[in-house]
Amino acid sequence: MKKTLTTTVPAALIALGLATAACAEIKVGASISATGPAAFLGDPEAKTLEMLVEQLNAKGGINGEEVALVLYDDGGDANKARTFATRLIEDDEVQAIIGGTTTGTSMSILSVAEDAEIPFISLAGAIDIIQPVKPYTFKTPHTDRMACQKIFEDMKKQGITKIGLISGTDGFGASMQAQCKDVIGEYGIEIVADETYDPKDADMTAQLTKIKNAAGVQAVLNPGFGQGPSIVTRNYKQLAIGLPLYQSHGVASDGFIELAGKDAAEGVRLPGTALLVAGLLADGDAQKPVVAAYKEAFEAKYKVPVSTFGGYAHDGFALLVDAITRAGSTEPEAIRDALETVSGLAGTTGIYTMSPENHLGLDLTAFRMLEIKDGDWTIVE
């Protein structure tokens, strides 16, 4: 098995063949944001895909056929993601695509994949990726709408009825803000302060001060990802707001705690996956064996902690392998049909059961409400 690596500048293109094009009969494409502003999401995704393909081929591949991974780094640029998706389909002739680290890159890729009728498994959170259902598009992370619902469930349990909202204006932040506003009334909760920030802002003190002074505010929710939520968390501590602070699953990683600082992050709650609390899972938890195996393999190979985001790539690849295995075919339409009938597949993010009406296959039980205590993750429920 020959491994080839090619890079181009400035696009930071990586073409990684874990089996030579001549001998590999299954070609899987990927466009990942391994560098750029979303690198903290994309880097573990790229590493995960590389590792899993290597592991799979060492065991004989899928139905006896090796897998070639063709991976491009789009740097978080939606236009590059669209270009790479076209290249993967027209030049590399892949049978399926995994990727779309961000909502923006996912939307670009899916437009190309749908036109070409190539299965695409997104690794981004926005509900717009799969609703309305698109024939060839699937995804692995919970939707932003589900994150809102999980957070509001917890707030309701705490007797919280009035909140402040501070959202990033990036694609993820704007989408989650809209979804939260759409469902919040179902939980008897009212938004009494509504602020936004640009992802490049270095200080959110002004917005947080307005929220702090809003009448009746009992908690604050920050839809966003990247460095913004870490800055919000630090400013929140500096202003001594003293109210519960909720973040989104977009920052569910140890990196968030490091960027925000252990003291500032203390008490922050967010919906996360089993992967973040692997050591706390009960022995009978169906996800525990999958989570433990991935965590052990990734950390042994790369010497860094696993992240929720790498877990999304893990699950995307697992779904694809399962689909191709059951289909007994590498024809894109057959793969698509098999993805749509996935049932009870345990991943790091949840247990997937898809249908023609549901191209995610997760419900709220896949989320764990987590709280940061002493610089680490704990399970609230």
From TrEMBL:
Family per record: Belongs to the leucine-binding protein family.
Domain Leucine-binding protein: from-to ranges: 25-361
SUPFAM superfamilies in alphabetical order: Periplasmic binding protein-like I
Xref: PANTHER family: BLR7848 PROTEIN (PTHR30483:SF38), LEUCINE-SPECIFIC-BINDING PROTEIN (PTHR30483)
Species annotation: Paracoccus broussonetiae
Membrane spanning residue stretches: none
Alphabetized UniProt keyword annotations: Amino-acid transport, Signal, Transport
CDD domains noted in UniProt: PBP1_ABC_RPA1789-like
Cited Pfam families: Peripla_BP_6
Signal peptide interval: 1-24
Protein name: ABC transporter substrate-binding protein
UniProt keyword Cytoplasm present: no
